[in-house]
Amino acid sequence: MRSVTPDLNSRASTNAPVRYLGLDVGSKRIGVAVSDELGLTAQPVMTLVRKRNPKDDLRSLARLCRKFGCAGIVVGNPLHLSGELSDRAEKTQIFANELALLTKLPLYLWDERLTTREAHAILYEAGKSREEHKPLVDQVAATLILQSFLDAPAQNVPR
């Protein structure tokens, strides 16, 4: 459920306020969320439409990490309901590791099972029609993933 890149000697391991970037990585879009400066709540930022060259996406996300002063990156890990790796999970993990190498920030792979379904439910509850979901659902899912990470007991997540 949780995975961490080797570099845990970042600002995230100090008592200073930290921000995390949360991502819901898909083949066509990447939902982006960021935590507040206290690391308590997640807010949606944007939906990044994937470029043909993944390096362009990586550079865009690295810029967002710098802009928000992020101390770590939380990426939704799309596992099967059984907990086994899906094809999408393998691709997501490769992309996430490349982003961690580029930014030199700790990476947290976080279980994202059913977050897209929950994001759709939230959007319906907010009165959004199905047609209005496409530009929003990925950033709502990223927000749910990041909030789940932030709500986890600190002893279960090395930070």
Structural class: alpha/beta
Radius of gyration: 15 Å
Mean pLDDT: 85
Poorly predicted regions? 1-13
Number of helices: 5
* Distance separating the two termini: 15 Å
Please give the order of strands in the largest beta sheet.
1-6-5-2-3-4
Helix content: 25-40%
In percent, how much strand structure appears in the residues? 15-25%
The name CATH uses for the topology is Nucleotidyltransferase, domain 5
Q: Any guess at the CATH architecture?
A: 2-Layer Sandwich
The tally of structural domains comes to 1
How can the largest sheet be summarized? 6 strands, mixed
The counted number of beta strands is 6
Based on the structure, what is the oligomeric state of the protein chains? Answer: single chain
Shape: globular
- Name the CATH homologous superfamily: YqgF/RNase H-like domain
User: What pattern of helices and strands is seen along the backbone?
Assistant: EEEEHEHEHHH
Give the CATH level 1 class: Alpha Beta
Structure commentary:
39% of the residues lie in helices and 24% in strands. Residues 1-13 have low confidence and may be disordered. Helix 3 crosses helix 5 (137-151). The chain contains five helices and six strands. It has one domain: 2-Layer Sandwich (Nucleotidyltransferase, domain 5), CATH 3.30.420. It has a six-stranded mixed beta sheet, with helices on both faces. It has helices spanning 54-68, 87-103, 115-125, 130-133, 137-151; strands spanning 2-4, 19-25, 29-35, 42-49, 70-77, 107-111. The protein has 159 residues and is of the alpha/beta class.
